[in-house]
Design goal:
single chain; 286 residues; serine acetyltransferase, domain 1; UDP N-Acetylglucosamine Acyltransferase, domain 1; 6-stranded mixed sheet; 5-stranded parallel sheet
């Protein structure tokens, strides 16, 4: 049965005056969702979803100036299409699920497999090149940046993609590969390649990823700093430089001691030769 939009001024106030126009543009998506979703994803469900997305984007993106801009965000379109595709996937309509998913990829550059499990409050900033695999699981309030890959490491069956806990932040270009868990409130630094499990409240950087901070109580949902992270490689280089300086000092001290020892040996030899020379003269005179 076709669903007709109902007038609800209080619900549309959050969208602004021009919100009605864009709202009717996504009305076709609502019809699909009415057919495949339960009651919570009905007409009012889509409104609550839009309000939630507006709150998430405003909370984590300082560049947004108005609520209407949310409709232009690729993450909003990609996640909305994912919700439809995921429901189709659960009902075993695999072809149509992939069709919805691939249309979203062409429009947004974000590839979310319909089989992935994603919690509330996912925010994908910029989004170009983001890939989320079939068996990936994302908790609530996860933040991903452009170029992030949540992928597998081979052709094994079953669970082969990572699980991200609540409030995890994965920075630009990071790759999380394999079936393991990234603990709650953890940060993955830009360009890192994570290949093993990460405990909660940790910061991981490098290739391969190394835990450089553990027990940090800051929540990445609010603390989205991708720059001021520890650099284990530079720390190792500084330690090697300090060790090199210490070794040079010790070598110079040893060289000084050896020169002193050589000088003492020469003096002893000279003294011995002088004493033997005088004793030989004395014997000759006798």
């Amino acid at each position: 049965m076709r669903v007709e939009p109902r007038s609800n001024a209080s619900s549309l106030d959050v969208l602004g005056r021009d919100g009605v126009f864009l709202y009717h543009k996504i009305f076709r998506v609502m019809i699909v969702m009415e057919q495949y979703y339960n009651k919570e994803w009905s007409y009012m469900g889509i409104l609550s979803y839009i309000k939630q997305e507006i709150r998430v984007v405003r909370e984590r993106d300082p560049a947004i100036k108005s609520n209407m801009e949310v409709f232009l965000y690729p993450s909003f379109k990609a996640i909305l299409c994912y919700r439809v595709a995921h429901k189709l996937y659960l009902k075993k309509h695999y072809f149509f699920a992939r069709w919805v998913s691939q249309r979203a990829v062409r429009k947004t550059g974000i590839e979310i497999h319909p089989g992935a499990t994603i919690g509330k409050g996912l925010f994908i900033d910029h989004g170009s090149g983001v890939i989320i695999g079939e068996t990936a699981e994302l908790g609530d309030n996860v933040t991903l940046y452009q170029g992030v890959t949540l992928g597998g490491t081979g052709k094994e069956k079953g669970k082969r993609h990572p699980t991200l806990g609540d409030n995890v932040m994965v920075s630009a270009g990071a790759k999380v590969l394999g079936s393991f868990k990234i603990g709650e409130n953890s940060k993955i630094g830009a360009g890192s390649v994570v290949l093993k499990e990460v405990p909660p409240n940790c910061t991981v950087v490098g290739v391969p990823g190394r835990i450089v901070k553990m027990g940090d109580q800051k929540i990445p949902r609010m603390d989205l700093d991708q720059v001021h992270l520890p650099d284990p490689i530079s720390n190792d280089i500084r330690e090697l430089q300090a060790d090199n300086i210490r070794l040079h000092k010790r070598i110079r001290e040893m060289e000084k001691r050896m020169r002193c020892m050589k000088a003492q040996d020469i003096e002893i030899l000279d003294a011995d030769s002088g004493s033997t020379g005088t004793s030989g003269k004395a014997d000759a005179s006798k």
